[in-house]
Write a structure and sequence with these properties.
7-stranded mixed sheet, Rossmann fold, 329 residues, D-amino Acid Aminotransferase, Chain A, domain 1, 18 strands, alpha+beta, PreATP-grasp_dom_sf, Dna Ligase, domain 1
Length: 329
């Protein structure tokens, strides 16, 4: 069997590029080298390149996404995308690869761009049975009067977060109205749009979902118990700050309900590849509250998806092979 030429793309244009590089290192270790020739491509502003094991760099020709290495032109049969944030998770690269006719492992351009916008995603998902959404307000510019508008329409405490982006960068929990202006400024430093949500008290979970050969698979959920106020960047990536239990502690009835909702979210957003959905089970009622969806979730050894794949009895090698083969179907 002739091996396929696979570009493993990493990096990106945001602060999440560090996480992307770590994810790519893990993915590279678990790819099936009997099936694929793997080329690690780094994508940074004005600097796209293939890097060899010895550190040599060859530039990517962006006209056709090819590389000239040692006089030989390399083109790619497919893309394994592990770029968190822009341009890998917001649809920019998806549209570029669509124009070039190169398949990729993640969501298409439209789904990627919509799901990067937390407010728009929530609007699309409203109406799914048993899925609840926290009351929220979407702000489109950092201007005077925002705090008053929030205080008029929403009930404290709040989550204030950049409307686009991930890894909880720029996110704050606001308990008192005096904290609101600072939280809004912090979020607007990361994005031109900000989402303010009423805080939901409950147990926090994250769950992986993917589709192969027409079948949606929901992985075992992870329950997140953070020693911090919420699951922020430090809690996600600093050892010992959070406890992560996979599978999470849910009754069979809850698991069935969550899995049904997760599949409907995946299908309604027309997702592709592996995604991760975060949610709360409300403290008093047990109601399912959607938080957000990540269409390029982290893939480090300790990332939630990696934990969930192992809990499902799969190897990462088999999981990645399924994702890769799906893009050629």
């Amino acid at each position: 069997m002739k091996k396929k030429q696979l570009a493993l793309i990493m990096g990106g244009y945001t602060a999440e590029s560090v996480v992307s590089e770590k994810s790519a290192a893990v993915v590279a270790q678990h790819l099936d080298r009997d099936r694929y020739d793997v080329y690690p491509l780094h994508i940074y502003p004005g600097n796209w390149y293939l890097e060899g094991e010895e550190g040599t760099k060859w530039p990517v020709d962006m006209n056709g996404f090819t590389v000239i290495k040692d006089g030989e032109k390399i083109s790619f049969d497919g893309i394994f995308n592990i770029i968190h944030g822009s341009p890998g998770e917001d649809g920019k690269l998806a549209g570029y690869f669509d124009m070039l006719g190169i398949p990729y492992t993640t969501c298409d351009a439209l789904t990627s761009s919509i799901t990067m916008n937390k407010g728009y995603t929530k609007a699309i998902l409203s109406g799914i049975e048993d899925l609840h959404l926290a009351n929220s307000l979407q702000l489109f510019s950092n201007q005077k009067g925002n705090a008053s508008l929030v205080l008029e329409q929403l009930r404290l405490p709040y989550f204030v977060k950049p409307n686009n982006g991930g890894s909880s960068i720029g996110m704050s929990k606001v308990k008192e109205k005096e904290e609101l202006d600072e939280a809004l400024d912090k979020a607007f430093q990361e994005d031109k749009q900000v989402l303010v949500e009423e805080f939901v008290t409950g147990r926090e979970f994250s769950i992986g979902i993917y589709k192969t050969d027409g079948k949606v698979t929901v992985l075992p959920a992870t329950e997140i118990i953070s020693s911090k106020e919420f699951f922020d960047f430090e809690a996600k990536y600093s050892p010992g700050v959070s406890e992560e239990i996979t599978p999470g502690r849910m009754e069979e009835r809850e698991v069935a309900r969550v899995n049904r909702i997760a599949e409907q979210v995946y299908l309604k957003l027309n997702c592709k590849g592996s995604v991760r959905m975060d949610y709360f089970l409300e403290k008093e009622t047990g109601n399912f509250f959607f938080i957000e969806i990540n269409t390029v979730p982290g893939q480090t050894e300790t990332s939630l998806i990696s934990q969930q794949v192992r809990a499902a009895g799969m190897t990462l090698k088999d999981f990645y092979t399924e994702l890769i083969e799906e893009m050629w179907r």
